[in-house]
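Q: Two folds, back to back.
A: First:
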Amino acid sequence: MDTDDLILISFGNHLKKLREEKSLSQEELAHRASLDRTYISGVENGRRNISLKALNSVAKAMEINLAELFEDIKYDKTRS
């Protein structure tokens, strides 16, 4: 597994944790962010590379700062 895959998985896990802390379903988050539930699912499962516009929409929908989406992301810069 390459670094790009690992960062997507780590981000997805973090997004899921934040969403669950807010007691939001994927469906509710998707609705609030004007995204499809399958898009949210794909991001959380590390299968989708979320766009900057979608990141901004998700942060607003969760009522958090955009930077909070990147806290606690595990990234090993020595792997390629």
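A: Second:
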Amino acid sequence: LIKKEGVTYTHCVPTILGMLLLGVEMEGVDLSGLKMIIGGAALPGGLANQALKAGIKFYCGYGLSETCPLLTATDLKDDMLD
């Protein structure tokens, strides 16, 4: 869908991000420029590093995911991964 439709913005939980990174690696899809909000669970540092290396700009969100509002969001900086 990213390749076919030119998706540039999405949201997901960390588990789906991991699946996305694995799938696009096998398909050779360029993720640079993709923006996403990650929520629903804590984002592991290793997964965050993989996403950054793939060129994904993401925000980690916290809020009531069942009702869709976003309470807070953070632009994850490199020093926050340590």
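Q: And?
A: The radius of gyration is 13 Å.
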